[in-house]
């Protein structure tokens, strides 16, 4: 118990910088929301939407291609409109991605649109995040600050799928998509 308190004390001491703490909180919430759903998307495609394994692979191939093509655009947007604005723009698009995923079950929506929304939201958020992190972190303490960032990602990345699995078992995908959307 003493070690956990010591780690929390170190995190608070390391993040006296308000902007950096906002970046940490933002990445923790977004990562938790996506880790609730992310690992279960292929299961949802196969079990609920009737995709084949090849269909799931095509979804991720489309996602990767759009990510590749949109990265330079997201970078230019971050420079032109601001890092935080770009990050914020990525969040409603991520919610659209979750809505599209769920709507695919009831409506004739091609997986391309969900893959595109996911890729675009991810690039807008992460490009803005990296610029914002570099701007708000202390050059002399950057190694420590990056390690806290990775620690946060690791912890929420482990807790999210566990919580997501419990939620799917208890209330199904629809409620899980809603909770992830609200966390965004």
- Report the C-alpha radius of gyration, rounded: 18 Å
Please count the beta strands (DSSP E, at least 2 residues each). 0
Question: What count of helical segments does DSSP give?
Answer: 8
Head-to-tail CA distance between termini: 31 Å
Largest β-sheet summary: none
Mean pLDDT: 83
**Roughly what fraction of the amino acids lie in strands?**
under 5%
Helix content: over 70%
- Secondary-structure element order, as H and E? HHHHHHHH
Unreliable runs, pLDDT <50, ≥5 residues?
none
| Shape verdict | globular
Structural class: mainly alpha
Can you summarize this structure?
With 184 residues, this protein is mainly alpha-helical. Helices cover 86% and strands 0% of the residues. The chain contains eight helices and no strands.
Would you mind describing this structure in some detail?
This protein has 184 residues and is mainly α. It is 86% helix and 0% strand. The protein is built from 8 helices and no strands. It has helices at 2-14, 18-37, 41-48, 53-81, 83-103, 111-136, 142-171, 173-183. The mean pLDDT is 83.
Which keywords apply here?
0% strand, single chain, mainly alpha, 184 residues
Give the SSE layout.
Elements: H1 2-14, H2 18-37, H3 41-48, H4 53-81, H5 83-103, H6 111-136, H7 142-171, H8 173-183
Helix pairs in contact: 2-6, 2-7, 2-8, 4-5, 4-6, 5-6, 5-8, 7-8
């Amino acid at each position: 118990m003493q070690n956990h308190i010591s780690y929390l004390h170190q995190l608070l001491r390391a993040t006296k910088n308000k902007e950096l703490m906002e970046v940490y909180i933002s990445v923790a919430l977004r990562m938790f929301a996506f880790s609730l759903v992310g690992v279960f998307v292929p299961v949802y495609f196969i079990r609920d939407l009737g995709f084949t394994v090849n269909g799931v692979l095509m979804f991720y191939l489309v996602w990767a291609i759009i990510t590749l093509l949109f990265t330079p655009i997201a970078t230019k947007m971050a420079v032109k409109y601001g890092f935080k604005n770009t990050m914020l723009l990525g969040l409603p698009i991520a919610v659209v991605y979750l809505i599209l995923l769920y709507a695919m079950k009831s409506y004739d929506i091609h997986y391309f649109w969900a893959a595109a929304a996911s890729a675009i939201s991810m690039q807008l958020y992460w490009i803005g995040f990296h610029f914002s992190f570099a701007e708000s972190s202390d050059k002399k303490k950057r190694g420590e600050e990056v390690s806290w960032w990775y620690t946060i990602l690791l912890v929420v990345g482990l807790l999210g799928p566990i919580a997501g699995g419990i939620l799917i078992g208890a209330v199904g995908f629809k409620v899980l998509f809603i909770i992830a959307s609200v966390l965004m």
